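One such given next:

>
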Amino acid sequence: MTERESGLERSVGFVMGVTYRKLSMLLQQRLKPFDITPEQWSVLVHVARSDGLIQKEIAELAGKDKPTTTRILDHLEGKGLIVKQTGEADRRSFLVHITDKGKALIERTAPIERGLLQDVKQCMTDEEYDRLLDLLRRIERHANLLKDRE
């Protein structure tokens, strides 16, 4: 099958997926000494930014489904990076809080993520980067509308 026949090279989803996996692998390599995966790190950052959220809110912010978020939170809790506290209004939900150990890990690893961002930005201008983010956010909003229609 030729490139033209497959159409994958012109598929936004395919190209974004390949790019995401490559960037994720780079971040994973750089985070490896800290015993945290990019998925865990991104959830931990959301917990740090909005301490005291429930799992559902964290899942929405991180763009992950509830079972995946539960699994990640369980790993983070096992590592002592977060603690879960039973919600007062709804005993079935847990408020998630970052620990001092989690805060320290974010402080040590945030420069790694910023460094990867700087490495990526070397292949484009600041204007192109801003435009890329705008386009990706537009695609995300449109995908949400399509999902809501189904």
Q: What stands out?
A: The chain has a mean pLDDT of 91.
